[in-house]
Design goal:
Elements (H helix, E strand, L loop, with lengths): L2 H13 L9 H23 L8 H30 L12 H32 L18 H36 L18
Helix pairs in contact: 2-3, 3-4, 4-5
């Protein structure tokens, strides 16, 4: 290989995303759809405070919060199914230290647990409140009977874990940006819907 050709190849490789490939398009789509739904979940529950208690608008915000949350609950299992079908995980290049890989696994398990536990708690909460009617004519099957004291306890736990969720999602996003802009590996690129985005851009 000539010096000129070798130099050209090295230059192109440096400007392109690192090898190792990307996740399957279905996995990528489910990841970003889940994020969009989570933004809706948090937006509805935060915006409800702008409306007085007992108002129709506040009740609608709470109902859509529940609807988006339960949609996330369903998507989690679809995501796990897709991850089982498309088992080839794109390699991170250059490989991060082992401690980062271990932390990443812990974070992923924690996030999946959050995405399952939170909607499930919400379902129990709606059951205990006896508020099982959702938008679009949907009606939830009760998991437990109406119980106001229990509903209050579940709501406290639900809100506490929800607040923790802000930090989990934030840390996950910061870690991806750290890999992209500081370590200059392909961690973020593997999950981006636009394949032409390169490292360090």
């Amino acid at each position: 290989m000539s010096t000129c050709t070798k130099t050209s190849y090295t230059s192109v490789r440096a400007q392109s995303p690192a090898p190792g490939g990307r996740y399957h398009s279905a996995v990528i789509a489910m990841h970003w759809l889940t994020l969009a739904l989570l933004i809706g979940v948090y937006a509805f529950i935060e915006f409800k405070d702008f409306f007085p208690k007992g108002s129709g608008a506040r009740a609608a915000m709470q109902a859509w919060h529940a609807t988006f949350g339960l949609t996330v609950f369903g998507l989690v299992f679809l995501r796990l199914l897709l991850r089982g079908i498309y088992r080839d995980t794109p390699v991170i290049d250059p490989p991060p230290p082992r401690w980062q890989q271990a932390l990443a696994k812990v974070m992923h398990v924690t996030l999946y647990a959050f995405l399952i536990v939170m909607p499930l708690l919400g379902w129990f909460l709606l059951s205990a409140k006896g508020q099982l009617d959702l938008p679009l004519g949907l009606h939830l099957a009760p998991l437990i009977g109406p119980d106001k004291p229990l509903a209050k306890n579940i709501q406290n736990v639900h809100e506490t874990i929800g607040n923790i969720g802000y930090y989990l999602i934030g840390l996950h996003a910061l870690a991806a940006l750290f890999h992209h802009y500081v370590q200059h590996d392909n961690t973020l690129w593997r999950m981006l819907p636009l394949a032409r985005l390169g490292r360090g851009e």
